[in-house]
Amino acid sequence: MLRRKKFQVIYPEYFDSELSKKQGRRVNLSLASKEPTLKKLIFACNKLDIDFEEQKDKAYPSRWWEKKGRLLIPINKQEKKLKSELIVELAEIIRRIVVKQKTLEKQLNRKDTKKGRTKSAKNVIRRK
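User: That's the sequence. What structure does it adopt?
Assistant: Structure tokens below.
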């Protein structure tokens, strides 16, 4: 069994833009994202080269009915960071992930609409 004192516990709710600070969000709305997931947190930890333990069946205490999971990040005595600093670093990476996903989705939508336009333009030219 792990001792909680030696780990920092990180929940996806810390980064949820749809939650208020009273409901558990720990970052500013400018850094928060819609529907943060455990997968995004894991990606951010891997990007920062942080060791962690994943617990999928856990829930944020004030939202006990939603089991989104959590990460346990060991506190390294040599590189001791404040939890708030760690949360901000993770939030920045998660925000970048969301922005990249949105831009990729927009690009795909543009390609689809362009294809539709070129097909209709070809049909108009053929009719003449």
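The chain has one domain: 4-103.
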